[in-house]
Amino acid sequence: MARKTNGSATMRDVARLAGVSIKTVSNILNGYQYVRPETRERVDDAIRELGYHVNVSARNLSRGRTGAIALVLPALRGVYFAELADAVMREASRRGLTVFIEQTNAERDRELRVLDGSYRSRFDGVLYSPLALGQHDLPLFDVDFPLVLLGERVFDGGVDHVTMSNVEGARAATEHVLDRGATTVVPLGVKDDPSPSSGTLRFQGFRDALRSRGLDVDPRAVIGVPDYFHATGAAAIARILDSGVEPDAVVAFTDTLALGALAALQDRGLRVPEDVLLIGFDNIDEANYSRPPLSTIDPGRDAIAHRAVALLEERIQLQFDGVPREERPAPRRIVIDFELIQRQSTLR
């Protein structure tokens, strides 16, 4: 019969039962890969038999770490950010880290507080997606705690940065509808603010695709939007239609804009995809359940979460090992590849 200990077993007990050293057990628990399979199996069997559980809090405290990271996002109301938060939490949990989420509502003062050092005592590191800050704020990102940037507002900030293929993804989405015979393609999601953002980058990819075919966008269809919510997409496409533009394809820069546009098009008696092809960006879960299901660009959300948490964990370890800044790896910019997901909204 297995000897259960109701959580009271220690690493020493596991080592004794498996016939290995405490260091070997520690290596296996921390993911050290150079362990013989038969040794790993004996340790795993001992862990199961004893009901041993790693006390992550105690382990982190012994290292001077909290075991917690912060994920700072503009707003969880945005479906993409909510699903990104879920992906980050799953990846962090796999690594024994706890995630605390804060939303800034894209308010500059709240975003600045992330960089002033007040997070340092509560969290080992920060994953940060700013919207109110920009390139003119670059000096503020020279911080003395582990920080990984997400998103498109700040580039070359002197810290690790994980982003997506915005230009290339939008270009692929536009080429997709052009290849299916569209000639009057309108963009949905051009931002009011012309500074670097996912919207400006996706508009660049959109125009690149049109110009490569000798086409350009009707200026009446270039309508700035303040945000990327469903209602905004519905209102924007209504304005475009009211201006006299008769699109046979819409390239929306987020799925939420596309889903709002889908409802507005159907309200006007326009059928998707028979009358208007429609494609979005983000591959949110909701896109697979619209009617018709929405074609979209998958930006690699799970891969973004994986790389961002891995980079942050590495920086945290270097920080707590006392490695001087000048001896640490140079900041890395990771661009995650995309995938075009074709569904019925672009299948005539």
Can you give a write-up of this model?
By secondary structure, this protein is an alpha/beta fold. The chain is built from 11 helices and 11 strands. It has helices at 11-18, 22-29, 37-50, 56-62, 79-94, 108-115, 166-179, 198-212, 230-242, 255-267, 301-320, and strands at residues 68-73, 98-103, 125-128, 147-150, 160-164, 185-188, 249-252, 277-279, 296-298, 333-336, 339-341. The strands form 3 sheets. The protein has a 6-stranded parallel beta sheet with strand order 2-1-3-4-5-10, covered by helices on one side. A 3-stranded parallel beta sheet has the order 6-7-8, sandwiched between helices. A two-stranded antiparallel ribbon has the order 9-11. Helix 5 (79-94) links the parallel strand 1 (68-73) and strand 2 (98-103). Helix 1 packs across helix 2. The radius of gyration is 24 Å and the shape is elongated. The relative contact order is 0.12.
Features:
single chain; 348 residues; alpha/beta; 3-stranded parallel sheet; 11 helices; 39% helix; 13% strand; elongated
Order of helices and strands: HHHHEHEHEEEHEHHEHEEHEE
- Which blocks of ≥5 consecutive residues have pLDDT under 50? none
Strand order of the largest sheet: 2-1-3-4-5-10
Largest sheet: 6 strands, parallel
Q: Total number of β-strand segments?
A: 11
Q: What kind of oligomer do you see? A: single chain
